[in-house]
Amino acid sequence: MDFGGGYTYLNPTSGTEFSAVGGLTYNFRNPDTQYQSGIDFHLDWGVSQFLSKQVFVGFVGYAYQQVTDDFGQPAVLGSFRSRVLGVGPQIGYIFPIGSNQAFLGLKGYGEFDAANRPSGWNTWLTFSISEAAPASAVAPTRHKVSK
User: Fold this and answer.
1) Which InterPro entries match (predicted)?
2) For the chain, N or C: smaller number of CB within 10 Å?
């Protein structure tokens, strides 16, 4: 189970966007192995600049820290809590697809400060389809001109 929350700020005038999501992940005991991974904390963030209404570029990052020990096996290696940080570039493209909108995004993370886990580069390609953004609900103001 993952418990958390997030925040997004978008300035539609400048095209600057910032998002952050933090949470805790709880794992259940595996009934076959009687092993249970510890609880972890994670924080994911992104900063981007829209170059147009459809294209943005920016940076992304995350922090991952296991905060409790694993359970179920003898602790031969100690508590073995893992940690890793990652940061890298992102680019995204939003486009119409039928009456919906689609998103195509690419982001890569260079991992560092790893403990008890592998580190390196990982890359994410995302494609999603959602309902199109609603048309502006506010009608433009018309001023009556009299002479």
Assistant:
1) FApF
2) C
CA distance 4 to 47: 19
Burial class (CB in 10 A: 0-12, 13-18, 19+), 136: exposed
* Cβ neighbours for 27, distance < 8 A, ≥ 6 positions apart: 36, 37, 38, 39
Strands 121-131 and 100-115: antiparallel
* Phi, psi of 3, deg, nearest 5: -110, 135
In 35-51, which positions are buried (b, 16+ CB within 10 angstroms) versus exposed (e)? Answer: ebbbebebbbbbebebe
- Partners of residue 104 on adjacent β-strands: 93, 127
List residues bridging with 63 in a β-sheet.
43, 85
81: CB partners within 8 A, 6+ apart? 38, 65, 66, 67, 68, 69, 115, 116
- Taking alpha carbons only, the member of 62, 116, 66, 108 closest to residue 89 is 108
Which value, in Å, is the radius of gyration of the alpha carbons in the chain? 22
- In this prediction the pTM is 0.79
What dihedral do alpha carbons 96, 48, 107, 54 form, nearest 10°?
A: 20
